[in-house]
Write a structure and sequence with these properties.
This protein has helices at residues 14-22, 26-30, 117-151, 170-179, 234-256, 292-305, 328-338, 357-369, 387-398, 408-424, 432-436, 446-453; strands at 3-10, 36-43, 51-58, 61-73, 77-84, 89-98, 104-113, 159-163, 183-188, 199-202, 207-208, 218-221, 264-270, 281-282, 313-319, 321-323, 351-352, 354-356, 375-379, 385-386, 428-429. The protein is of the alpha/beta class. Helix 4 crosses helix 8, helix 5 packs parallel to helix 6 and helix 9 (387-398) packs across helix 12 (446-453). It starts with a strand and ends in an 11-residue tail after the last helix.
């Protein structure tokens, strides 16, 4: 039976590391973002008898695995055993051992048997081992990074309400918060699950369960109609404007009507605030640009700033291109690059101001927990790059050529104003406020971020 073993040391005590694994959201934080893998059901935690159902999809092929937790020893060990799934058998042992200088040695041992007996081992064994190596290199680093973020906060557990909680950024933030021991109250448009503390709202109908926001320490506002996915027709523009401007107005009115308003509102905005600025170095003090997106961001932020009337500290995150294959612009553009037909857009000279997905989650938490941080904050990494450089680095990480540029005329023809604004224009945006407030970026370089998020960082690399 094939066996895979991986060890890595994280610089945190065993109790902290094991406790992180026991909290809601831990498994979600460990799923590889470059794969279409999701949890579709669970009962119980990681103690004996708890079960999890995971569905993985690659292209047209979908498979579901159910595992049961066994051999639980608090602070030392637990095991996942396949109950049903695509393999003949799967046993994953998680071991936690005290290491030097107060750290923890994480040891993962997996024994599996692929379908098809000996033939399956010959053809699938190498592939499975290679994928496990990618996964555990990623996993060890994310655990260390998340624990470092949580360890930097020394206050009591927080109650945080989140709009857009099921989205690309919101879902990751919620899982991050719960693994840190914080309570998350998701603000949802669907029927709320009262057992999970969800809060109902409908921005277009101007309805929100204001009373259920009483007592929250922080609100993170991420909801809004997607800017990408289709041309900016007049109807699409109206939907974008209403969802962001009117949705923010409704939320702020509700917060201002509370007996105990939250201490902080972290509201999403975008670097579109600055418009097309070429190679000019842009900070939070730079003036706004022109165009639909710049006008939208100004009004969007003005509505969020209204929460100051009730004494709430307001942070507006002007977010750049978020790097993760799990969604956003990178998730959309990956397929042509994997096929070797990706290339620079237009001249390639327009700047791409980006931020790693994990760093963005960390910056939201930093904004919540840093009382001195307020006003606009550029949610971008310290080193923006021209589009041609971004394209070249992405191809290098994927080991694919990037020889087919897309002319500006083709971008405009395919996507209209949306393509011109989001793909052909750019701004060199620097995170002056975040850096000044003490925020630490785990990924300052774009190649390191892409390699981590795409699972190409190297199986032997230790998390820092």
């Amino acid at each position: 039976m094939p066996t895979f073993q991986h060890e890595c040391e994280v610089p945190f005590p065993v109790d902290d590391v094991f406790g992180w694994h026991m909290r809601p959201g831990a498994l979600e934080r460990l799923l590889p973002p470059w794969e279409d893998v999701r949890i579709v059901g669970r009962e119980g935690g990681i103690a004996d008898g708890g079960t999890v159902r995971i569905r993985a999809k690659r292209g047209p092929i979908s498979a579901e695995m159910k595992v049961r937790h066994t051999a639980f020893e608090e602070g030392r060990h637990f095991r996942d055993e396949q109950v049903s799934g695509p393999l003949q058998s799967w046993v994953h042992s998680h071991e936690f051992e005290a290491a030097g200088s107060g750290g923890t040695l994480l040891r993962d041992r997996i024994e599996w048997e692929p379908p098809g007996g000996t033939a399956g081992q010959i053809f699938a064994g190498g592939v499975i081992k290679a994928e496990l190596g990618r996964f555990f290199a990623f996993r060890g680093r994310r655990i260390a990074q998340d624990l470092a973020r949580h360890g930097a906060y020394d206050g009591p557990p927080l109650k945080v309400a989140v709009t857009g909680a099921s989205g690309f950024i919101g879902s990751a933030l919620c899982h991050f918060l719960t693994t840190g021991g914080h309570e998350v109250r998701r603000i949802v448009r669907a029927r709320p699950d009262r057992g999970k503390g969800e809060i109902a709202w409908d921005p277009m109908e101007r309805r929100i369960e204001r009373e259920r926001l009483e007592g929250v320490d922080a609100v993170v506002h991420l909801a809004g109609e997607s800017l990408t996915g289709q041309r900016w027709t007049p109807a699409k523009k109206r939907a974008i404007w209403r969802s962001r401007v009117e949705g923010t107005r409704l939320l702020v009115e509700a917060l201002n009507g509370l007996r105990r308003p939250p201490r902080v509102l972290v509201a999403s905005s975008a670097i579109g605030f600055y418009g097309d600025r070429g190679a000019e170095r842009i900070t939070e003090g730079s003036p706004p640009g022109k165009g639909f997106l710049a006008d939208l961001c100004r009004e969007w932020e003005d509505q969020a700033a209204g929460a100051r009337r009730s004494g709430t500290r307001v942070v507006m995150l002007r977010t750049g291109l978020v790097l993760s294959p799990a969604g956003g612009a990178l998730g959309t553009m990956l397929l042509p690059f994997k096929m070797g037909i990706g290339g620079r857009l237009g001249t390639g000279r327009q700047y791409v101001s980006w931020i790693d997905h994990d760093d963005l989650v960390g910056l939201v938490f930093h904004a919540i927990t840093t009382p001195s941080l307020r006003g606009p904050v550029n949610a971008t990494a310290p080193h923006p790059v021209p589009n041609a450089t971004f394209t070249s680095i992405l191809g290098r990480v994927l080991k694919r050529p990037t020889l087919l540029p897309v002319p500006s005329l083709a971008v405009r023809g395919m996507f209209g104003e949306m393509g011109k604004t989001l793909l052909l224009e750019g701004a060199r945006v620097l995170p002056e406020a975040a850096s000044r407030s003490g925020f630490r970026f785990d990924f300052e370089g774009i190649e390191e971020s892409l390699a981590f998020q795409l699972g190409h960082a190297g199986a032997s690399r230790e998390p820092r």
